[in-house]
Write a structure and sequence with these properties.
It is a single chain. The strands form two sheets. Strands 1-2-6-5-4-3-7-8-9 form a nine-stranded mixed beta sheet, with helices on both faces. Strands 10-12-11 form a three-stranded antiparallel beta sheet. The chain contains 18 helices and twelve strands. The protein is of the alpha/beta class and about 375 residues long. The protein starts with a helix and ends with a strand. Helix 16 packs across helix 17. Strand 5, helix 10 and strand 6 form a beta-alpha-beta unit.
Length: about 375
């Protein structure tokens, strides 16, 4: 068994040991750098984290059962094209990694890059009205014209979620569903045709092992992943209480931008949106252009037009010091993902994302398959 598979196995086991106490385990993981290192130091954890919980210490001393379950899970995953992505993997959603309660490992099936330059989530009520359906349809269609490259995330639920996924597929966007159960199942079952299409134009993502039911608490837990892996949350319709509002509040807690469509006064499924806007919990939008302007993504449409016209890059561009750092990193090793460039250029992920976009506009780099950036000769 190679080191990579061994570390995934240990990561799987760790999630079984400390399932509801991710913050402490994540601290340990980040400090030691891998699940393997945690297991190698499991007998002296308090030397590393003096205030480690008794539950964690006890769990690390009783690893036989978690390891057995981890082995069974890994065997199933490898046989069914499910990719386990640990926290230290380059494929792990880097935006989510910034969150204190990020899962140690995610299970993924699909072909979309989870670290695309633009990632949004579209959420709302399961009881989506005709008004809400039309909002989603028009928003996604218009956004596609303004920002050609956006990953659309939602939760595969009835109502707003499934409409968001279907409109993304129809308009040529990749779309990822974050599930409240394992990848051996799909809830609700009637959404399977959409889920199957998403495997070829997006994907399915979860933190839950196989044989995990879609229990109520799991839906609440998965909302933090929807929020954390996105740049912005768009709330379409919501009653005064609902999962969409939970995702919006989590998004604000993660310092993500939150937007909401208003609705008519006294409409049940607009009350939550209207209240959130009134309380300054979300920015009011009525169309995709509002959202793009608020996010500062207005240059995306210019880039799309430039690429269509085949505009040649400027041979003698004026580069800022930070842009030069990224170019230099790509000169040393071309075709790198954004998280590695962020480290090598010693820049935050958000700033690196913006700089890469500017370099692409200048014709210095281009985006490659798998989310890599290529320095043009």
């Amino acid at each position: 068994m190679n080191q990579e598979i061994t570390d995934i196995l240990y990561t799987l086991a760790l999630t079984r040991i400390n399932y509801f106490h991710l913050a402490g385990l994540r601290q340990l993981y980040m400090q030691l750098g891998s699940a393997t290192a945690i297991f190698e130091n499991r007998n002296n954890i308090r030397d590393i984290i003096p205030d480690a919980s008794p539950k964690l210490i006890h769990g690390l001393q009783n690893i036989d059962e978690p390891l057995k379950r981890a082995e069974a899970e890994l065997e199933y995953d490898l046989a069914h094209d499910i990719l386990p992505i640990p926290l230290n993997d380059a494929n792990y959603p880097q935006r989510l990694k910034e969150c204190d309660d990020a899962p140690l490992l995610l299970f993924y099936k699909g072909n979309a890059n989870l670290n695309q330059q633009r990632v949004i989530n579209i959420v709302g009520t399961r009881h989506c009205t005709i008004y809400g359906q039309e909002l989603v349809r028009q928003f996604v269609a218009d956004l596609r014209q303004l920002c050609p490259h956006v990953l659309v995330v939602s939760g595969m639920a009835y109502g707003v979620d499934i409409n968001a996924h279907r409109q993304a597929l129809q308009n040529g966007y990749e779309t990822v569903a974050v599930l409240a159960h394992g990848l051996d199942n799909l809830y609700p079952p009637r959404h399977k045709p959409t889920a199957d299409a998403m495997l070829h134009q997006g994907g399915l993502l979860t933190e839950f092992f196989t044989q995990t039911n879609a229990d109520k608490m799991n839906f609440v837990r998965r909302n933090r992943i929807v929020a954390g892996m996105s740049d912005a949350c768009i709330l379409v319709e919501s009653a005064v209480h609902g999962g969409g509002l939970i995702t919006a509040r989590l998004s604000r807690g993660y310092n993500r931008d939150v937007f909401a469509f208003p609705g008519r006064v006294n409409d049940t499924y607009s009350e939550g949106c209207n209240q959130l806007i009134f309380n300054n919990g979300a920015t009011l939008i009525t169309k995709a252009e509002d959202f793009v302007n608020a996010m500062g993504w207005t240059n995306d449409s210019l880039l799309a037009k430039a690429q269509k016209k085949g505009i040649e890059r400027n041979l003698f561009p004026n580069l800022s010091p930070d842009e030069t750092s990224i170019v230099q990193a790509l000169k040393e090793e071309n075709d790198q993902q954004i998280n590695m460039l962020s480290v090598k250029a010693n820049l935050p992920i958000a700033q690196t994302t913006a700089l890469l976009f500017e370099l692409e506009m200048k014709g210095i780099i281009r985006t490659m398959a798998g989310g890599c950036y290529h320095l043009i000769d």
